[in-house]
Amino acid sequence: MQLAPIKFRDEAHLLQIAQRIANRVGRRVDTSSPLCDCRLPDGSRVNIVAPPIALDGTSISIRKFSKKAMDLHTLVGFGALTEAMVRVLEIASTCGLNIIVSGGTGSGKTTMLNALSGLIDPRERIVTCEDAAELKLQQPHVVRLESRPPNIEGKGEVTIRDLVKNALRMRPDRIVIGEVRGEECIDMLQAMNTGHDGSMSTIHANKAREAFIRLENMVAMSGFGLPSEIVKAQIAGAINMVVQTERLNDGSRKITEIVEVTGMTERGEIGYQHLFKFVPMGEQNHKVFGRFDACTERPMFLDKAITYGLDKELLQIMRSAMDANINVGDTDDSSGY
């Protein structure tokens, strides 16, 4: 973070700027609606907090994204993952696996989701659902949907759940949800379970295992009153893979886990196995170094890979990765992505 050399005349001037930013995308900021998520024309994400919630005056937080679209190979150059992991993710996307990108705030979930979306076949129809549109899909057949808050009379709200429901009526091949955080979770799981293979989303969780727990909690909070075992079975049937992102102590971002869902265990829990895991080995010159370990030779989605003629390549990649501990060295860009 940097202190910007921008000065405003007074609080009223700052609030006016905040209102202009919000109004451009159909949002509003005032005393009755002091919280706002919106975006700038260049796609930057903006969060505005105004009085009386902000005790010391209006606060505008702007998160800018790189103008250059980052693909997975670019992230390899930053030391975020390895070429073997990239190829496994490419095969997973080709096979239509439903993928959740999990991570904490600022860990690079949106960047990773953008990179993963670049693996989607350009012939497929994609519908995106977001709170504040920030995904930059490069395919030619993309329909972008954005939620809308209620107006001053409390009417006209369009939630993420509304968008997901409507997306199912648009004959999409894949549905991409910017972030799942509430009752839309049940609709996303149903979509993934009803033929929309290859769908993707992000979720806030510090570990891959916690992502499953958060999904369970979201379904429980949606008010459907489903038994826990049914919820877990729904998740296990819908989610095929979790890609865990993490921002390390040195500020770099890495893929710390790629986890594959294996189904339900005999104890009625969601079963999973690690495909890859980042193992930190220490810190040198204020940079964390370690290795990416492959954790199995035979992924569960090998059966799907057979359909696409990719099973032999997948097995070869995993066996080669199992034989090598790949050290993470310095990169040209110490900040990561």
Query: What is the number of strand segments?
Result: 13
What structural class results from the helix and strand content? alpha/beta
Radius of gyration: 21 Å
Mean pLDDT: 87
What oligomeric arrangement do these chains adopt?
A: single chain
* CATH topology category name of the largest domain: Rossmann fold
The main β sheet shows up as: 10 strands, mixed
Globally, the shape reads globular
State the end-to-end CA separation. Answer: 14 Å
Low-confidence stretches: 326-337
The count of helical stretches stands at: 10
**Number of structurally distinct domains:** 2
Could you explain the architecture of this structure?
The chain is an alpha/beta fold. It folds into 2 domains: 53 residues, 2-Layer Sandwich (Beta-Lactamase); 256 residues, Rossmann fold, CATH 3.40.50.300. 30% of the residues lie in helices and 25% in strands. It is built from 10 helices and 13 strands. A 10-stranded mixed sheet has the order 6-5-7-8-4-9-10-11-12-13, sandwiched between helices. It is globular, with a radius of gyration of 21 Å.
